[in-house]
Design brief:
Elements (H helix, E strand, L loop, with lengths): L6 H10 L4 H8 L3 H11 L6 H17 L10 H39 L7 H25 L12 H4 L13
Helix pairs in contact: 1-5, 4-5, 5-6
Amino acid sequence: MTTKPDWEAIERAYRAGSLSIRAIGELHGVNHATILKRAKKEGWARDLTEQVRTATKQKVTTAVTTNGNQSKAVTDAEIIEEAASQGAAIVLAHRAGLARWQSIADKLSVVLAEMDVTEDNSGDFARSLNAGVDAQLKVIKGQRQAYNLGDDNGEGGGPADQNLTISFVKPSNGN
């Protein structure tokens, strides 16, 4: 025996606009076409998307500065709150992951800085250095996105941020 769909939850998710209609359908075990028909029939509008985005950013800011939660209001505010909580959890998880990757990149940097480069290990050193720089650049880009710095692509926009070239010079036999 199948259970009846929770149409109130489906409507909240639909109006919040955070998930695709197919994703809402999968989440609640309802065909997306059925959701579309019901939304049209009952006049649901995906009108809260921008408010959800704004509330998500506010929740992230609040979570970073304090650990308190605001009390919920009614209907539209509840929908916004629910969707904003989901968005904030994702952004905060990304920030925590980036902090771990930053720590790993820093450890690699220390190892490479202390390594003696010889003719025998210069190839391995070059590959490790290239991987370390690549990892660091990816962490920086991810942090810029997670902390809303620079443009939407995570780029700062300055000329120093646009191109980075690394050249390896073979050490001479002398010094």
